[in-house]
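Minimal example, chain plus iron/sulfur cluster.
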Amino acid sequence: MTLSPTSSTSSTSDVGHRTSDFSASDFSALSAYFHIPFCETKCVYCDFYSIEDRSSQSKFVSLLKKEIALKIEEHPELLGRELHTIFFGGGTPSLLSPEELSSIISEIKKNFIIARDVEFTLECNPGTVTLEKLSGYRKLGVNRLSFGVQSFNADELQWLSRIHSADEARIAIKLAREAGFENVSLDLMFALPNQTKEKLSYSLDEALALGTDHISAYNLTVEEGTPLNRMVKLGQVGEMAQEEAAELFEMVQTRLAEAGYSQYEISNYAKSPATRAHHNLVYWDGFKEYVSFGPSAHEFLGGMRAWNVSSLEQYGAMIEGGKLPRINSEELPIENRKTEVLFCQLRATGIALRQFKKIFGEDLLRHAELPMLLHEGMVVVEGDYLKLTKKGYRFCDGVVIRLMK
Ligand code: SF4
C-alpha cells in the first residue's frame, strides 16, 4: 500500500512540500532513520554495521525502497504520517549518488509526508564528496550535513584509519557551503591513546576556524568486536586514563563554550537552538517515535523497540521473501523504561519533571540523592527540568546510577 502524490510543487527542492492532501493535524510527528551500510574502509574503532564491498549498492537501494513499502503494509497506520526529521546515517551515506538518493526519496514521498520545515541530515565522509554531489543532495532537499572529520592531525587520522586528510576535511566543508548548506556539523574525537592537550587543541582550533553550525565531540570508546578492542586486549594500544580523558573533555567544553557553542548533550554543541541535531533529540527524548530502515537500524513505534538484522545478505533475503528484515522487538518493562528515560533525557536537555512523575509515579525533586547532587554542582533545576551542569555532563553515568537508587 503506498500513498500517491496528489499535488506537485514548484520548489527547487524535492522535499519540504506536501505531496498529498493529508493535513498536518491528522497525524502526529514522526522521525525516520535510513542506514546506508557501505564504507570505503572500516575505521579501527567503529562498531556500526557496514561493509567495504559496494558491489551490491544499487541492489541495496531497491531493497531499501521495498522495505519502506513492506513497513507500510505491516503498519498501515504509518501511511501519510508527517516526517519532521530524516536522517541518513551509516556506514557512509555520502557514497550514495544523488540519483540513488533521489530514488529513495521518491519512495519516502509515496508513503509519508515530508514536513515543510523538515530537518534532513545526511552523514558525509569528507573523502567521498565533490561539489557536484553535494549540490545534488541540496537540490533533493537535504538541508543538514554532518561530516565525520574526527581530527585535524595527520597521524591521528591515519591511526583512526580515516580515508581523508585534514585538508580534504577543510575543503569538504567549504564545498558544503558553496553547495548552499546553511546547517553543517562536524564530528571530532578526543581521548585517543596518547593524545596530548596540544594535539586536541589544534583540532579544536581548526574546527572552530571552519565555523560550522554544530560540533559533536566524542570521547573515543573501545567497543567490543572492533579491531581497536583486539589491539587493546593484545596490549598493543593502551586506553587513556579516565582522569586524563576527563581533563580533555573539560577542555573541549571550555573551548567550545568560549567560541559561542552551547552544550546541549554530553557530546553535542550548537551555535543556536535552531542548529541542534533535532533528529538526535528525538532519540534522547525517550518517548518520541521514530521509524527506521536498513540493516541494523533500530526503531521505536507504539511503545515497542524493534531492530533489523545486521547482515546485508540476510536483510536482502528477508525482504525478497516479502518479510520485514526485523530480527527482534521488545516492549520494555516499566522499570527499564524509567532507566532509559532517565539516561536519555538527562544526557541531553534535561528530565521533564512533571512528565516523569506522571508516567513513572516518582517525584525526582524529592529524591534522596538530589540535595547532594545539587551541592556537588552536578545538576540544576531549571523550571520543570532537572539538567546536568557542565561538570555533570562529565559524570552523567554516575548521576543516573545515583538517581536510580
Ligand atoms: S566511515 Fe564511519 S561508519 Fe564507516 S567505518 Fe568509519 S566510523 Fe564506521
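The pocket of iron/sulfur cluster is lined by residues 39, 42-43, 46, 48, 50, 90-92, 125, 148 (CB under 6 Å). Residues 1-27 have pLDDT under 50 and may be disordered.
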